[in-house]
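fyi for ur records
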Amino acid sequence: MSLARLQLLEQLQGEARAEFQGLKCSVQELDDVLFKDVGGKIHSDGRWPLVIDPSGQAAIFLRYRDTNYLNTVNPSDMSVETIRLALLGAIRYGKPLVFDMMEVNMFDTVKKQLERLEPGLAEALLGRTILANERYLSLLRPTDGPEYADTEFQAARTEKFKLFVITKQHHPPEDLLQTLLPIQVVLRRSSRKRGCRRGPVSQRLPSAF
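which gave:
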């Protein structure tokens, strides 16, 4: 009996590790979920979204919206200056900055490049403190032009800044799932209810500027 209980406990622990808490939504619901945050789930969680979508449809959706999109496997997109301008522009104009990691976990590389740009920047960005006390103004350079003068950064726009990270990986690393809010994109033809549903996200996902 003791051995049976131990085996059952190990089985339950294994099942618990096989799923994580996050949100689910369809591609059609991404506008409401990511941009409008209907229901305030992203705001209440406090973390930036990690969009998990092996199909790649979410990346296409975000790439052709009004976002500053960076492909993390593209060396030119990952240059320090490109990241600086993309981040600064996203804050200045109040739109999302998107890091698309494709099938590769490039999160450490993203953080290292942010640290090369400015020490402490990765933590400030992920912790949302980059918007506090106009912290972002430290990213300005004299050559940026008049549209990036400090007087051009208006709260009505900067408060709309967002950060999205996309992955095609079926099983993102645990540290990534803890740092960001997992949002699993589920492919389906129609949806009766709009918005996300919070609950366990199975590791088995549909395949399919």
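Residues 92 and 157 are 7 Å apart (CA to CA). thats all i got for now
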